[in-house]
Amino acid sequence: MRMAYELCLATAAGQVPTGPDWIHEVKHDGYRMLVIRENERVRLLSRNGTDWTKRYPWIAEAALKNRQKRFVIDGEAVILGVDGVSDSRPQA
C-alpha cells in the first residue's frame, strides 16, 4: 500500500545528539506507527500500511480527545509491563 506519509526510522547511535536542531526518542521494542486524525476519523498505520486501529483502540480514543481535528503523529506504539520493559504484543 502506498502511503502519503513516510515514518521516521530508528538510527543507532553511541550517544544522544546535542544541539538545537536535534530531537530524539528512546527506541523501545514496539511498532512504528502513524496516528492520522481527520476530523472524527483516526487511523493507526504501520510502516507497510497495515491498519492497527482496532488493535490499539485506546490510542485512537486518545487522539480523538485532542482539540486539533487534523494531525499526523509519527511514533512508536509500546506497551510497558509492570517491570518497565516493553512488550509490543497487541492486547486481545
TrEMBL record:
<dbReference type="InterPro" id="IPR012310">
    <property type="entry name" value="DNA_ligase_ATP-dep_cent"/>
</dbReference>
<dbReference type="Pfam" id="PF01068">
    <property type="entry name" value="DNA_ligase_A_M"/>
</dbReference>
<dbReference type="GO" id="GO:0006281">
    <property type="term" value="P:DNA repair"/>
</dbReference>
<protein>
    <submittedName>
        <fullName>ATP dependent DNA ligase domain-containing protein</fullName>
    </submittedName>
</protein>
<feature type="domain" description="ATP-dependent DNA ligase family profile">
    <location>
        <begin position="19"/>
        <end position="80"/>
    </location>
</feature>
<keyword id="KW-0436">Ligase</keyword>
<dbReference type="GO" id="GO:0005524">
    <property type="term" value="F:ATP binding"/>
</dbReference>
<dbReference type="GO" id="GO:0006310">
    <property type="term" value="P:DNA recombination"/>
</dbReference>
<dbReference type="GO" id="GO:0003910">
    <property type="term" value="F:DNA ligase (ATP) activity"/>
</dbReference>
